[in-house]
Structure formats: structure tokens, C-alpha cells
Amino acid sequence: MAYIEPAPIKDKENPLESMMERFNIAAEKLGLSEEVYNVLKNPAKQVIVSLPITMDNGKIKVFEGIRVVHSNILGPAKGGIRFAPDVHIDEVRALAAWMTWKCAVVDIPYGGGKGGVRCNPREMSPGEIERLVRAYTLAMIDVFGPDKDIPAPDMGTGPREMAWLMDEYSKAKGTTVNAVVTGKPLVLGGSLGRTEATGRGVMVSALAAMEKLKINPFQATCAVQGFGNVGSWASALLEERGLKVVAVSDISGAYYNANGIDIQKAIAYRDGNKGVLEGFDGAEKLSDPLGLLELKVDLLVPAAVEDVITKANVDKINARLIVEGANGPTSFNADKIINEKGIMVVPDILANAGGVTVSYFEWVQNRLGYKWTAERVNRRSDRIMKEAFDQVYKTSVKHEVPMRIAAYIVAIDKVAQTYQFRGGF
Ligand SMILES: NC(=O)C1=CN([C@@H]2O[C@H](COP(=O)(O)OP(=O)(O)OC[C@H]3O[C@@H](n4cnc5c(N)ncnc54)[C@H](OP(=O)(O)O)[C@@H]3O)[C@@H](O)[C@H]2O)C=CC1
Ligand SMILES: O=C(O)CCC(=O)C(=O)O
């Protein structure tokens, strides 16, 4: 099987710089005080650890593990853990700050954090991954905690890794602490609805934006980059709401069918094919996987990695609407051209906030010692996503700025007000 390694991203820009450029614009629009600006531009805590792991061949390999807490002014830090070969401190800093803004946009009582381990989980056995998760957890034992910093899944991690993290943390503390991590398997206190939550939030945001643009979902086409947790759930739920998903992709390539891809068939194929779409016969494989981003569709959902829409390809983007399932898929340099082209973008810190919203519900349920029904979880998260969309849309109209800057304005304003009331510096 031919994998594209490393990730096929051209012209990768620095996600931290992209984040700061937007932050600067919103801070200026808001007239943010210099003191609060200086607090928010720096992460509150950054921890880098070395993790020596015995590999299956008996050799010891040392991995680098990172956790960054950008802010805990609104509550404990919250954010996923990424296992990927190109994890970098600047990327984790940007991802942690995006979590601060994201939690503020959807108005949940958390600050922002993010973690990462530079590794390639595709080349590791389950035993090696388990040892790595446990070593990372122990190294972060004083960082994590249900009232301090609560991790969750991100790229390359899922419920299995969260279960090991909870177990290791609980053993170290001498008691079961399920609220230390979210995105757990149901039987360990995971929430109904968490697995699909990010994709579901993407769908809710997309439908809200399509209403503003007067696009009828039953006549709309869609392309989705990334067919992991976020991309596959977003594809399935958008298809369920009437859209024709004409293209999907993963690390093995991009797959196109003008008549619409049968998403359930694609998911079943992926699940029976070691997690990849390679060889899927319900669509044609595109010669250039990045061609998916340039298709003439109503809706484009980048749901894989950062910086896939950059100044190198932004001129060729043909979608009417972009809803960002991934964190940071559009570089700062591409923003201006997208705006000039009149393409509406529902930004990551709004569009993919459904995941952390249901993570919050999971933490609430763990602390209550009670389980909500899927119906309650979905109804509440849909309402939060829709309200956040409406607030960002109104702010965008009021300040005459794109939705992305509007989302930053909403978030930074909330965090700045909290600083003003709490004081203490
Ligand atoms: N999980 C969550 O709840 C949340 C995730 N996000 C963000 O969404 C994005 C995706 O995360 P998630 O779905 O959890 O991760 P997964 O690991 O589940 O899936 C990632 C998907 O992207 C594919 N992929 C990786 N690199 C490329 C590439 N260069 N080109 C095309 N496809 C690629 C992967 O392919 P393959 O599997 O073949 O390697 C896989 O299909 C990330 O930016 C993440 O930060 C945001 C909010 C919450
Ligand atoms: O569910 C969470 O707590 C965080 C998910 C995440 O990492 C993200 O939204 O980017």
C-alpha cells in the first residue's frame, strides 16, 4: 500500500504565526489592553518530556511528549492529545491557544490546552502505543487533573488511548478518576454522542451557514478532506441531511464520484481495510490528492491537518463555503484571498467546537455520577453550536469582518472580561 509520507502538505506555514496574526487583528478591533494582550499572547505553561519506551524488538526508543496550557483563566485547561510524526512545539502552542478561543466561543467553562507526542502510531503495535500513553500520563501526572487540565482525543488517538490514560492516572492517584480525561469508551464513563460530536458540530455549522447563503442542502455538493473521526462523521451526517458528498480523502489519496459517494459503504470499507480508503471501489482515485480541495463544490470541509489551504493553492479553491473541521487548515496568508473571492469560512474555533462541547458534557456527567441520553447530549450540543454560530455571525456583521475574525473577537472579549473581573496581576 502506498502511503504518502510525510503528510502531503505544500508550503506548510507556521500555525502559531497564523494564529497570532488573527489574534492581533481581533485584539486591535476590540481595543484590547496591552496588559491582557501580553498575558494572552504567551502560553501559561509548557512541558516537554522525554519518554523512553521499550519497543517490541527489545530496543529502547525515546519519544518527545509535549503539553501546553495556553490559559486556565476560564476554568481548567481542556484539549486533545495528538500522536503524529510531525508534532512540533509551535504547532502545540497554536493548538492550545485555539482551544482557549474555542471554549470561549461556545461558552463552556474551560481554558485551552493541547498535547502531542512525536511518533507514528501507524508503525507501532498496540502494546508500544499503550506503553507510550502510560509513560506520557505519568510524566504529566502533576499537569493533568479534573480541575487542572483535562485531555481528550485528537489526531492519532481515540477512546482506547483515553482509557489507558485514565487507568494510569487513576492508579497513580489510588482511586478511579474518570473526569481526568474525556473521549473515553462508554463503559469507563464516556458520553453518548462524543465520538460523532465534532462531525455533528461541523454539520450543524454547515447547515446554519448554508441557510445564510441560501444554499439548499438537497441540491448541494460537498468534498471532505480527512476520513478519520471528524471527516467521516461529518460526511455521514451531511449526507444524512441531503448533501451529495462527491469526494473524500485520507492519507492514501482522494476519491471522487460525481454521483455521490455512499458514505456508509466507505466507512465500512475503511474499517475492514486497516483504517484506510486505499482500494475503495465506490469512487475514482484522483491523481493528485490535493485536487480534492480545488473541486467545484458548494461546501468544502477540510478535516485532516493544518495549513492545507495556503497561498500556494488558494487561487484554485472553488467552493462557495468552507467549514473547517480540522484545526488551522487555512493559513493566515490564504485568508485575504478567500475573503476577496467571497467564500464564506466557518472557522475552526467555531465549526469544530462540537467535540469539546460534548467533552464538557462527559466531564459534567462524570462529576454528577450520572449518564445522559444521546438525545439530551445531541439536543444540548446542537443548541450550543447554533447559538455560537448566530453570535459569531452577528459579530461579523456588526464589525464588518469575516466570520473568523468575528469568532476571535467573541472569544478574546470573553477572556479579557474575565481577566478584568478576576484581576490579580
Ligand atoms: N477528534 C476530535 O474530536 C477533534 C478533532 N479536531 C481536528 O480535526 C482534525 C482531524 O482530527 P481527527 O479526525 O480526530 O483525526 P483522525 O486521526 O481520526 O483522522 C485524521 C484523518 O486525516 C487523514 N489525513 C492525515 N493527514 C492527511 C493529509 N495530509 N491529507 C489528507 N488526509 C490526511 C487521516 O488519514 P489516515 O487515517 O489514512 O492516516 C485520517 O483520515 C485535526 O485537525 C484535529 O485537531 C478538532 C476538534 C475535535
Ligand atoms: O474534546 C476535547 O476536550 C478537545 C478536542 C480537541 O482537541 C479540539 O477541539 O481540538
TrEMBL record:
<dbReference type="InterPro" id="IPR036291">
    <property type="entry name" value="NAD(P)-bd_dom_sf"/>
</dbReference>
<dbReference type="InterPro" id="IPR046346">
    <property type="entry name" value="Aminoacid_DH-like_N_sf"/>
</dbReference>
<feature type="site" description="Important for catalysis">
    <location>
        <position position="154"/>
    </location>
</feature>
<dbReference type="InterPro" id="IPR014362">
    <property type="entry name" value="Glu_DH"/>
</dbReference>
<feature type="binding site">
    <location>
        <position position="229"/>
    </location>
    <ligand>
        <name>NAD(+)</name>
    </ligand>
</feature>
<feature type="binding site">
    <location>
        <position position="198"/>
    </location>
    <ligand>
        <name>NAD(+)</name>
    </ligand>
</feature>
<dbReference type="Pfam" id="PF00208">
    <property type="entry name" value="ELFV_dehydrog"/>
</dbReference>
<dbReference type="GO" id="GO:0000166">
    <property type="term" value="F:nucleotide binding"/>
</dbReference>
<dbReference type="InterPro" id="IPR006097">
    <property type="entry name" value="Glu/Leu/Phe/Val/Trp_DH_dimer"/>
</dbReference>
<dbReference type="InterPro" id="IPR033922">
    <property type="entry name" value="NAD_bind_Glu_DH"/>
</dbReference>
<keyword id="KW-0520">NAD</keyword>
<feature type="binding site">
    <location>
        <position position="78"/>
    </location>
    <ligand>
        <name>substrate</name>
    </ligand>
</feature>
<comment type="similarity">
    <text>Belongs to the Glu/Leu/Phe/Val dehydrogenases family.</text>
</comment>
<protein>
    <recommendedName>
        <fullName>Glutamate dehydrogenase</fullName>
    </recommendedName>
</protein>
<feature type="binding site">
    <location>
        <position position="359"/>
    </location>
    <ligand>
        <name>substrate</name>
    </ligand>
</feature>
<feature type="binding site">
    <location>
        <position position="102"/>
    </location>
    <ligand>
        <name>substrate</name>
    </ligand>
</feature>
<dbReference type="GO" id="GO:0004352">
    <property type="term" value="F:glutamate dehydrogenase (NAD+) activity"/>
</dbReference>
<keyword id="KW-0560">Oxidoreductase</keyword>
<dbReference type="GO" id="GO:0006538">
    <property type="term" value="P:L-glutamate catabolic process"/>
</dbReference>
<dbReference type="InterPro" id="IPR006096">
    <property type="entry name" value="Glu/Leu/Phe/Val/Trp_DH_C"/>
</dbReference>
<keyword id="KW-0547">Nucleotide-binding</keyword>
<dbReference type="Pfam" id="PF02812">
    <property type="entry name" value="ELFV_dehydrog_N"/>
</dbReference>
<feature type="active site" description="Proton donor">
    <location>
        <position position="114"/>
    </location>
</feature>
<dbReference type="InterPro" id="IPR006095">
    <property type="entry name" value="Glu/Leu/Phe/Val/Trp_DH"/>
</dbReference>
<dbReference type="InterPro" id="IPR033524">
    <property type="entry name" value="Glu/Leu/Phe/Val_DH_AS"/>
</dbReference>
<feature type="domain" description="Glutamate/phenylalanine/leucine/valine/L-tryptophan dehydrogenase C-terminal">
    <location>
        <begin position="191"/>
        <end position="423"/>
    </location>
</feature>
